[in-house]
Amino acid sequence: MNNYDWLVARLDAFIRKYYANKVIRGTLVFLSCLLFYIVTVSVGEYYLYLPVWARVTLLSLFVTLGGAALVAWVIIPLAKMARLGGVISHEQAATIIGTHFPEVSDKLLNILQLKNGNDNVSSRELAEASINQKIGQISVVPIAAAIDLSKNKRYLPYLLPPLMAGLFILVAAPNIFKDSTKRLLQPTTTFEKPAPFKFNVKNKSLLAVRNSDFTLELETTGDALPTEAYVEIGDDRIAMQAMQG
Q1: pLDDT tens for residues 15-40?
Q2: CA 24, 25, 27 angle in degrees (round to 5)?
Q3: Which member of 93, 100, 115, 236 has the lowest number of beta carbons within 10 Å of its beta carbon?
Q4: How far is the C-alpha of 242 from the C-alpha of 223, rounded, in Å?
C-alpha cells in the first residue's frame, strides 16, 4: 500500500465514523421522541378515553412520522455507513476534517487535487513527490478524532426522563399501558369511560316467588357514590332506598 492508498483508507474510515455518529445521534433522538410519545399518549388515553377521531389521528401520526423519522435518522445513515447508496466524497470529508484541524485542510484537498490532475509522465512524477511530501506532513494528525462520538452523550438527558417514566409506570401501574394500548390498537371502536362506582349484589339468591315481596340488596363501591339508584322491571322503574349503617 502506497502513501496515497493509506490516506484514502484513513478517509474511508473517517467517512464510516461520520455516518456511525449520525446513527448514534439519530437513534438517541428517535428513542427519546418515541418514548415521550408513547408515555404521553398512553397516559392520556388511559385517563381521558379519547374519541375515535383522536385515536385515529394519534395512531396515524405514530406510523407516518415515526416511520419517517426512523428511516431518516437511523436507517439511511446506517445504510450509508455500510456504503449502500451515495456517501460524502473524499473532498467533502477533507473539508469536514479541516474544520477541526485547520492545519491539514488545504493539504488534504491539495493532495486529492494533485492525484486527480496528473496529465503526463513528468507532471505525474512531480505530483507523486508532492503528494508523498504532504502526506508525510499530515500523517501524525488523528483524522478520525475529528468525529467525537462521546459528544452524543448530550442527548441522554432527553432520553432518560421518558425512559424512567415508562419504567415507573410498568412497575407501579402496568394497566395504564395494557388498557390504553388495547384501546389505541382499536382506533375505530368507541369505548365508554366506566362509572366511578360498582354495584355489588348482596343477595345469595335472586330467585323470587311470583306475587311475593322480594328485597334486592345492593352495595356500592368506588371513588364516587350515586345519589339515586333504580331497578327497571319491564316498563316499570322502581327507586331503591338507601340503608343506613
Answers
A1: 999 999 999 999 999 999 999 999 99
A2: 65
A3: 236
A4: 18
**Cα 198 from Cα 226, distance rounded (Å):** 10
Cell of 4: 496515497
Spatial contact of 52 and 187, defined as CB atoms under 8 Å apart: yes
Q: Count how many Cα atoms sit within 13 Å of the Cα of residue 91 in the half-sphere of its side chain.
A: 6
Provide φ and ψ at 185, rounded to 5°: -80, 0
User: Per residue in 197-213, pLDDT tens?
Assistant: 888 888 888 888 888 88
Q: pLDDT tier at 141 (50, 70, 90 boundaries)?
A: confident
Q: Pairing relation of β-strands 197-201 and 218-222? A: antiparallel
| Cα–Cα distances in angstroms (integers) from residue 116 to residues 94, 109, 124, in the given order | 15, 11, 10
Can you say whether residue 222 is alpha, beta or left, with left for phi > 0 and alpha for psi between -120 and 50 degrees? Answer: left
